[in-house]
Amino acid sequence: MAKNKAKHWYDYLWIWSIIYFALGFFNILFAWLGLIDFIVPLIFAIAGGNKNFCNRYCGRGQLFWVLGRNLKLSRKKQAPGWISSKWFRYGFLTFFMTMFGSMIFQTYLVFAGTSSLRKAIKLFWTFKVPWKWAYNGSIFPDFVAQFGFGFYSLMLTSTLIGLIVMALYKERTWCTFCPMGTMTQGICKLKAGNELEKKGDHHDN
Amino acid sequence: MRKAVNDKDRCVACGVCSNQCPRGAISIFKGCFAVVDEVVCVGCGICEKACPAGSIKVNDRRNA
Question: B63 vs A205, B2, B24, B44, B60, CA distance in Å?
Fold first, then answer.
């Protein structure tokens, strides 16, 4: 997105990130649309063996760039090394997937009738925020809305973390430990296999 | 000659460097890490400033 480069339609996907949160503010069922951001990167990685999603189509990464670079909301300081270290990246991925699993379990409890629907979102996996206005019943069973509240919580929390590190460090510091980025890079490295060594050596000469 | 050099073990393949490069000298190799085409790179350092992982750096390559 350098200034002298022609803009493409996909350079504006940061708008999608904002629309997503706006839609979920009014109706939590829209939170389901966030699954696109989970599935598409995996399709790119598994089918294409690339990170084109991160590289080109990730609205969140673009949002951090637009806010951090264009609106100058970032200090642009190098983040501490541990943030982009392998143990932290895979640790954060593990933590994130565990929390995702617990959210799915919560959805299951509502599906099974053991729990009732809670119209609230949870920020940073800790703070409950009432979100009653976003759901007044629908043609779907309650567990569908429960998943919406859970998924929206996860999306909002991770965006907030991203915004914090954007402000403190480089614009796209979130990308260094983004669980989807870690996962898709892992898949790509497995797919590329021993080609990696050859490529790496060739360019390190 | 100053050229961008990427530490492929640190690189997260986010693609910011490649998006920012005014010469189009950087590509992401199979979603694994950024690769710099040293013939095209002019060592301007825009990628280094953008890289969130601190993996791409401009080095003096005179002795290489």
Answer: 12, 11, 25, 19, 8
Tokens 């750096």, located at residue: B57
Can you tell me the ipTM of this complex?
0.92
Q: What DSSP letter does each residue of A53-67 carry, written as one string? A: IIIII-HHHHHHHII
pLDDT digits (tens, 9 = 90+) for B27-54: 999 999 999 999 999 999 999 999 999 9
Q: What is the separation of C-alpha A94 from the centre of its chain, rounded to a whole number of angstroms?
A: 14
Closest CA–CA distance from residue B46 to any residue of chain A (Å): 10
Structural domains in chain B?
Answer: 2-60 (3.30.70.20)
What's the CA angle centered on A109, arms A127 and A21, to 5 degrees? 45
Which residues are registered as beta bridge partners of A123?
A: A127
Q: Which tens digit of pLDDT belongs to each residue from A82-110?
A: 999 999 999 999 999 999 999 999 999 99
Task: Locate the chain B residue with the closest alpha carbon to A4.
Answer: B22
State the Cα–Cα distance between residues A56 and A187, nearest whole angstrom: 18
Nearest CB partner across the interface for A184, out of B31, B36, B53:
B31
CA distances from A16 to A34, A60, A144, A180 (A): 10, 8, 22, 18
- Angstrom CA distances, B38 to A1, A202, A205, B56, stand at 21, 12, 11, 13
Instruction: Select the residue of A4, A182, A188 nearest B32 (Cβ to Cβ).
Output: A188
